[in-house]
């Protein structure tokens, strides 16, 4: 089994020496850095050891989990040891306590922003892009005329389009869904169009020998072959949808929603609530991306990227 340079240092005995040198340097700079460096070095050693082991489900999950836990511990230690004001950077423990105390508010904001705004706009935008891609593939005129227009629309800044859409569709979740539709439409369109063109001439000629027309060829050959491209677009759009819904709420929303709560709590210098909203948004976005990636593995199990 091949190991990286870090594993070689540990195996050769240089790891403890390197860690000791780092601790001495930290003590010379500031004694408060010693426990921080010690925790970081210990976690680095454990992570290096885990990465050098045989790849299993446990080690695959343990490495990123340990890395994330280490970041949280270091964050907590730095804030506590150096006395960083809570209005600058609250510790993770304060953020966790705020999440526990504000569960009803966070759930209401999650429903308003994610389930109503982001998810609705995601479904509408990606669905419209998929249908438009089929129309473009069917019509060379649309391929030459619509794609440049879509590129122009995709280049429009969200801070410019969001206020206009809020004025058009109102201050509730409908305007946020409209912003999300605009944001996800073009990335999904480009990926689907590229996927529909992924089949080669031999495969298409084989379908012609079976006397298959356009729609049977599309459904049985070209659309299945385009699935890796389609799911690539779907995964990109998962993050764009949530970002678009949150940013749109900065330009007008009812008294609920992640973007509304973030802008309001920043004005009140309640940074622990801001970070609580950010944590919920990050967890929701990660779960959404993971769900799409899991569906991709189920649908495109035949593709080399999934082996």
Automatic annotation (TrEMBL):
Sequence intervals crossing the membrane: 17-46, 58-75, 114-136, 148-171, 177-198, 229-253, 273-295
Entry annotated with the keyword Magnesium: no
Cellular-component GO terms for this entry: plasma membrane
CDD domains: TM_PBP2
Chief location: membrane
InterPro entries: MetI-like, MetI-like_sf
Chain ranges of the ABC transmembrane type-1 domain: 128-299
Membrane topology, as annotated: Multi-pass membrane protein
Pfam families: BPD_transp_1
Protein name as catalogued: NitT/TauT family transport system permease protein
Species of the source: Tranquillimonas rosea
